[in-house]
Amino acid sequence: MTMKRREFLKLSAVSVGGVMTLTTMPNLAFAQSVQRLKYDSYVTEHASPSVLDRWFLDELVKRTDGAVEIEYYWAQSLNKAGAHLNAIKNNISEISLISPGYYQSDLPVTRGLEWYYKMDRADALLRVCRDVYDNYEPLRQEWESRHKAKVLYWTNWYYCPLITREPINSMEDLKGKRIRGYGVGTDVVESLGGRAIPMAAPEVYSSLERGVLDGAFGFDFITAISYALHEPAPYITEIGSGPHAPSATVIGIDAWNALPDDVKSVANELADEIYQGKYREIYAGIAEDRVRKALDEGAQFSKWDDSEIERAANLVQPEQVNSWIENVASQAGIDGSEMQSIVDEAIKRHDSSGSLKTPFEIYQDMS
């Protein structure tokens, strides 16, 4: 619900040793002390998380009557991929999209949120991540104490069907195929019999075209169609792996603490709107557009049968979670089993309430 115009705290900027700081001044309008924040992203403004971030930040500006201004830096124009978390920590930028797959050694606790074949709906995954962040202190400490970054809201990269040059109707068809993987998606490829090939996203199209790769997994559908991967690899197969790549939009702790309480309140209300349905609304519109585009350009959609999906799930889980508990959580000094019990409780609370459709379900609606 859109908030009414507020009577903000009245502030003025004073110079102390050449540094501008904010002090409360009851007789001056807040608009005289605009907060300028740099938003820094490694992806383009057309990527699905970028559309969500742009909505949040534009609304923050509007609903605070311009008390906040945002400078946008898209597509690594300020910092390169993999450098954004450190940029937040060192106040080089104030707000950023962080995808943990680029920071596996920096975010070992957060890696406990990244798995496949555990839930069904992407719009439920961000609520699961929110609940774990709120209820598991080591996760908050990893972001807020270690990296000086407060999570404004959790997001994710929708769903990642298997995209291949040839039809893949079962795990037998996948055996030995060279599949580009991302993050823990490489484990899924290997568990199902494929050969996982790490590769930067911009190289995937040409590698598919030349036959260096047979397919891609761990490449979210919306971005994959934007990259035109369906041209060299027109077979798009739902393998039941669930939502893909939990990520977070964060603000530096120093920048957050400098915001007046009323601005923080607006930011928190906007985050609530994201969890309550704005994420689903934005992603559903983009996904439908991409399914239509893929169909118009010759892509073919299919889904493994239920028994094959169940067989795949049993190969991936609980092995993937147990591997994180034994090899990552223990080295990070946390009780991984405790965290996963909190995760499981959150999944029970939220997954059944999710409704964001997969690309295959959208295709079925169009058929």
Question: TL;DR of this structure?
Answer:
The chain is an alpha/beta fold. The protein has 14 helices and 13 strands.
Number of strands: 13
Shape: globular
pLDDT < 50 stretches: 1-31
Count of alpha/pi helices: 14
Decide which structural class fits the backbone: alpha/beta
CATH-derived topology of the largest domain: D-Maltodextrin-Binding Protein, domain 2
- Fraction in beta strands: 15-25%
- Summed over residues and divided by their number, the pLDDT gives a mean of 91
- The CATH architecture of the largest domain is 3-Layer(aba) Sandwich
Largest sheet: 6 strands, mixed
Distance between the termini: 35 Å
Radius of gyration over C-alpha positions, nearest whole angstrom: 21 Å
Order of helices and strands: EEEHEHEHHEEHEHEHEHEEHHEHHHH
**Helix residue percentage:** 40-55%
Count of structural domains: 2
Describe this structure in words.
There is one protein chain. 43% of the residues lie in helices and 17% in strands. It has 367 residues and is α/β, with parallel strands linked by helices. The protein has two domains: 35-158 and 246-285, Bacterial extracellular solute-binding protein, family 7 (D-Maltodextrin-Binding Protein, domain 2, 3-Layer(aba) Sandwich), CATH 3.40.190; 162-244 and 286-366, D-Maltodextrin-Binding Protein, domain 2 (3-Layer(aba) Sandwich). The strands form three sheets. The protein has a six-stranded mixed sheet, with helices on both faces. A five-stranded mixed sheet has the order 4-3-5-12-6. A two-stranded antiparallel sheet has the order 1-2. A hairpin with a 2-residue loop joins strand 1 (11-16) and strand 2. The longest helix has 36 residues, at 261-296. It is globular and about 60 Å long. The two termini are 35 Å apart. The relative contact order is 0.16. Mean pLDDT is 91; it is low at 1-31.
